[in-house]
Specification:
This protein is mainly alpha-helical and about 220 residues long. Among the domains are: about 60 residues; about 80 residues, no CATH class. The chain contains eight helices and three strands. A three-stranded antiparallel beta sheet has the order 1-2-3, covered by helices on one side. It is elongated, with a radius of gyration of 34 Å. It starts with 6 loop residues before the first helix and ends in a 22-residue tail after the last strand. It comes from Molorchus minor.
């Protein structure tokens, strides 16, 4: 015959459970003894697969090396620079050693922590009215090439190296507009854009001096 469960049984069970929890907490609070640390390390090591334990150890050591590297760099560089370095290191390790450091959780956590309280500085930009005023009022003798570069850069969303490598041969005058070719782009795909004549800005381009003995560079 089954024994009837009474409220006293429940209270006794709860009290025994509380005593067990208190014992566990007491043990955790005093776990700094050498015996406890050693027992914990043995338990942790047993979690790793026996056959591939050496591979896990190598990965662990690699992450520690990277942590030390970025920790040292964090003393001299901002969070944004550290992330840029991380991206370069990640690409190199994947290509040369087939190591994916994006799977290193401690490293990622460390890099995220370096960004705490960091405020990126916003670059100063010109407003549309300031750009128009510069193009209309600045002296062509002194600022002609800057004006041309500004027009091409805004109209074609050009990168710096795309502007530097542009030549007048890449620009075709079709009267009411200019067709500009960018043969060498970052994506290795040539592109074309059109510059329309807004505010007679196209009158600047014929003023560009082109030395006959040198490449016709814009």
């Amino acid at each position: 015959m089954e024994e009837e469960v009474t409220s006293e049984h429940v209270l006794c069970y709860c009290e025994a459970l509380r005593r067990r929890v208190r014992k566990i907490k007491c043990t955790m609070n005093n776990c700094e003894s050498e015996e406890m640390v050693e027992a914990a390390n043995i338990a942790i090591s047993n979690l790793l697969p026996t056959k591939s334990r050496s591979l896990y150890d190598i990965a662990y050591n690699r992450e520690n090396v990277l942590l030390a590297y970025f920790s040292e760099n964090a003393k001299n560089y901002k969070s944004s620079t550290l992330w840029a370095q991380y991206s370069m290191v990640k690409s190199c390790l994947i290509i040369y050693d087939n190591i994916d450091i994006s799977k290193f959780p401690k490293l990622i956590a460390f890099l995220k922590r370096t960004g705490d309280g960091y405020q990126a500085k916003k670059s100063k930009i010109l407003t549309k009215s300031e750009i128009d005023r510069f193009l209309l009022s600045a002296d062509d003798k002194e600022f002609l090439m800057i004006k041309v570069g500004l027009i091409l850069g805004i109209a074609g969303a050009c990168r710096t190296d795309e502007l530097v490598n542009s030549t007048v041969d890449d620009i075709e005058d079709v009267g009411s507009s200019l067709i500009v070719k960018i043969p060498n782009t970052k994506t290795k795909i040539p592109r074309i854009f059109v510059v329309t004549d807004v505010g007679n800005m196209l009158e600047l381009f014929p003023k560009i001096p082109v030395p006959s003995s040198s490449p016709r560079q814009a």
